[in-house]
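Quick one: structure tokens for this chain, please?
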Amino acid sequence: MPTGSLNPDEVRIIESGNVYYRRPSALNRPTDAGTPLHSSFQHGGYVDNESVSISPDISIESVMKWQSKMAVKVYVSEIGLQVNFTMNQVNRENFGLWLFGQEWENAPNGESHLAVPSNVTIGDLERELVIEFTDDQDDTTRFYFTRGVVTDREELTLGKTDVKLGVTYMVLDAGNDLMFDVWSTNDDLYSA
């Protein structure tokens, strides 16, 4: 007899969520889905309606031998995880995250400017990231990524209805863990 069944409670609708980020810190890391985040996290503001996606990836390499045209073994050569989202709120922090992790500076004349050096380092790009949402069953889920960098930026879109700052965040190894508390939820469907 097969396991599982049709269960409408397992069909979830996520109407709203939030994106948060900050420069790396060993302090005040989120450990569950319900505790409020520390004030050092920057709220990403409004994001495109369907722009948050989390994509796992795995690369398998084949071991070929002279006597066979088929692989005799395979091994995992690389695993990865990317998060894509598009911010619609333009402010100092979001624009800085989109543009190589740089920070705005205030000029003496009252204007602000963003000077992007040609020698941007990984340290400029690294961020912690939190994706958090509540579904139609009032269950809160939080994805927390301890280490990652923004590796790709969509072109800056200046539209009549909004501005789009689209980024791709690549998760980095955090001590042999792909993620830290990656799927923290109060949803009882995941309880053993």
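The chain has a mean pLDDT of 85.
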